Amino acid sequence: NAGVTQTPKFQVLKTGQSMTLQCAQDMNHNSMYWYRQDPGMGLRLIYYSASEGTTDKGEVPNGYNVSRLNKREFSLRLESAAPSQTSVYFCASTRRQGPTNEKLFFGSGTQLSVL
Amino acid sequence: QKEVEQNSGPLSVPEGAIASLNCTYSDRGSQSFFWYRQYSGKSPELIMSIYSNGDKEDGRFTAQLNKASQYVSLLIRDSQPSDSATYLCAVIGDTGRRALTFGSGTRLQVQP
Asked: Residue B90 in contact with residue B83, Cβ under 8 Å?
C-alpha cells in the first residue's frame, strides 16, 4: 500500500527559484494538508484542503500556494524561494475533517534547502 | 503564548521505567487531542487519541486529559529503548480551522 506519496524527497534551490512539491494519496481521503517542520518548532500548518475543490490557509501560508488538483493530489508551490523556506515539508491526509479528526497519514517528507 | 506547549527535553529514563510526557494548550474550547511519535528522520505516526476527560489506555501507553487545567499527558510504562523518539502533542482547537495544531515535541531517550 502506497499511502501518501511525496516527491521529491530532497531538493536544493537558489533564492528566487520556484518549485512545486507533489503529494498524492491512494486511500480515498477527503482532507489533505501541508506542514513544515523546523528544528524546535514542531509541525506548522501551511495550507489545507478539507475536501476536493477547497483550500484554506494555515498558520504560515506566506510565500506558498496550493492546488487541490483532484481528490488524490494536493500540490504546494513556492513561487520565489527564500532561505527562510528551508525546512522539511510533510504532506498528510485523513478520511474526513471534523472535531474527532481521524488518524492523520503522513508522507515521508521533502527536505528542501534554499541557498 | 504558543497554542500547544511541550518541554523540548530530552527526557531521559532508564529502561523499564515510566516515562511521563506533558502538554498544555491555550484554546479552552479544544475538543480533540492526539499524541504522535516521530523517529529521527521519519514522519510522525499516531499512537493515541483522547477526546474526554480522564484516562485512556492502550497497551503500555496511557493518555490523560484534564480540560479544566488544559493539560494532556502521555505515560509510557515499561519504557524500552525502541520508545526513544520525539513525541508530538497535537490539538484540534475550537476555531473554524479544523486541522491539527502541533506542539514542538518532547525528545525521549530510554537508556538501556
From this structure: no
Identify the pLDDT of residue B97: 63
pLDDT of residue B6: 94
Q: Are B27 and B95 in contact (CB under 8 A)?
A: yes
Distance CA(A34)–CA(B48), nearest Å, equals 22
Of A42, A59, A100, the CB nearest to B51: A100
Residue A88 contacts B where some CB pair is shorter than 8 Å: no
**DSSP 3-state of B81:** helix
Residues of B near A (CB-CB distance < 8 A)?
Answer: 4, 6, 8, 31-32, 34, 36, 42-46, 49, 51, 88, 90, 92, 97-105
Q: Using CA coordinates, name the residue in chain A closest to B107.
A: A40
Whole-number Cα distances in Å, A75 to A41, A72, B81: 23, 10, 37
User: Taking the CB of residue A36, how many other CB atoms lie within 10 A of it?
Assistant: 24
> What does the pLDDT look like over B4-43, one tens digit per residue?
999 988 999 999 999 999 999 998 888 889 999 999 999 9
Contacts of B43 in chain A (CB under 8 A): 90, 106-109
